[in-house]
Amino acid sequence: MKSIVNIPAVLLLEDGTVFYGKAAGKIGTTTGEICFNTGMTGYQEIFTDPSYFAQIMVTTNAHIGNYGIQNNEVESESIKIAGLVCKNFTYNYSRKLASQSIQDYYLNENIVAISDVDTRALVRHIRDKGAMNAIISSETTDLEFLKEKLSKVPSMDGLELSSQVSTKEPYTYGDPDASLRVAALDLGIKKNILRNFDNRDVLVKVFPAKTPFEEMEQWQPDGYFISNGPGDPAAMPYAVETVQKAIEKDKPLFGICLGHQLLALANGIGTYKMHNGHRGINHPVKNILRNHCEVTSQNHGFGIDPEGVKNSDKVEISHINLNDKSIEGIRMKGKNAFSVQYHPESSPGPHDSRYLFDEFVELMKKTNNH
Question: What span, in angstroms and rounded, lies between the C-alpha atoms of 185 and 170?
Fold first, then answer.
């Protein structure tokens, strides 16, 4: 394990706010939109979630790295966050099952981090001022140089990123003899989504983000899945077109997070960039149709227009966020299409929302007479 203790580092926000700390991970400089996650566990899942691509992550839990790194606790093949800000970056780990330290993990993946930051003050600032671009550097503390570099970073608003994290070639996941087949549009899909389908005897074929619908349909799936992913949904007309064609086919369709936003756009409902988004594993959501509440895992910086949903004659609200009343789920009227803004695959948890996979499977069985 390579230690870089006591090398100074700096975090500069777009609005000029500065935080000083210590270098962690790779010595270097990185940029991205800064956001925070309130989860108390699951840091490795956060690091590897493709939806965090081009974002600098602030963890509110005080200790990061304390249970080490385990190879099977990933949501993609590599770390996707642009950088990490934390209070305590823990070099030593206690879990016997872990294969390496977080420091070695970050060095191997060339990820820049800063520790010993007052993350409470930082999160309060982001919560009040909103998400914004930021830069971390352990190479220089020259603020004028860093301001110049930061000024060239594009805003997340209007940015298309899914095609950068999507698979380059189609692949299958699950039992080839499974009773059901789902075609998944990979906009930044998480491995635990695939595991949830496999656990329900569903074979998934995962297609690159810009795959034409006709190519997906040639595989003759029983249903379509539109995945989570990074970036602005309004900058993805190619994916909106795919969703619209899937709706016309009227096979069961299920969307998660970005997939939820694309289902809204496909029905003429707009999206918007949230003040600071929802990121954590403790967000309360009410299922209006079932009249019950669930604690959910969330990671999104965009949402769908509430008035657009309420005025639509094509969709109905199925779930609402109990904190801010934002729309957390919709279903199409007279169609076999539904979506949620949060993450029912929720690794490491909570598991309150796994029933949505069951509902999708039952819908496919009913529609396809299995």
Answer: 10
